[in-house]
Amino acid sequence: MTDTKAPARARVGSLLRRAAQAEAATWRSLYVWARRRPLPLGSGDEPFGYLGVVRPILGIFIGLSVVEIPIFDVVVTHVVPWRPARWIVLGLGIWGLLWMIGLYASMTIHPHVVGDRGLRVRLSSGIDIFIPWTDVEALRKRYRSLPSSRSVQVEQEGDRRVVSLAVGSQTSIDVLLRRPLAVDLAKTGSLPVNELRLYADDPDGLLRSARGTPASSTASR
Questions:
Q1: What residues pair up with 42 in beta bridges, in sequence order?
Q2: Of 138, 167, 163, whose CA–CA distance to 48 is shortest?
Q3: Stretch 17-24: mean pLDDT
Q4: Whole-structure pTM value
Q5: In terms of Cα–Cα distance, which of 108, 110, 105 is closest to 121?
Q6: Considering only CA atoms, which of 198, 213, 53, 212 is closest in space to residue 140?
Q7: CB distance 139 to 159 below 8 Å
Q8: pLDDT tens, residue by residue, 91-145
Q9: CA of 39: how far to CAs of 52, 65, 111, 115, 214, in Å?
């Protein structure tokens, strides 16, 4: 007899594994960021951040969490007769605060990197894509506002597949590829991609840094 529940169990198992990996990566990022070590860059590498557009939002949420933790502690202590409830709520509040700081840390210590051999595109600790300059047809500065808040969005434009790595529902640079490049994404697996769109706080600086690299070109529109 065929086990019809096996695919569902496999999907749930995969989701749990990805969630556990993402959680562990967040805590590792928080640890690395707290140590204030320099970014591990190679000779000629130049980092470009992408946190600016969401920094105010993260700052507001972190600030609200700092204020909410003692308020909820006082409320639960005086309203809920079950004593362990105070420690549960307090623990969840502290976990949520540290998780948001960990997200901030992860986006800080995993910037995009322009190097001699190619462009390393990153998004927190979950996305890390290396594109050799020999595969790049052009880099173009173009701000786009995306309708969805998802950080990874895949679109089919005719026979071309476009992947957008959005920050704050925005991208600012289009990477046009000479040929389809296999890109490994957590939810969809490996996909051949014709164009990659990403967000950088300083797209002009990234384009200037890319000038003169083998087989790369820059343009704006």
A1: none
A2: 167
A3: 82
A4: 0.84
A5: 110
A6: 198
A7: no
A8: 999 999 999 999 999 999 999 999 999 999 999 988 999 999 999 999 999 999 9
A9: 18, 28, 9, 14, 25
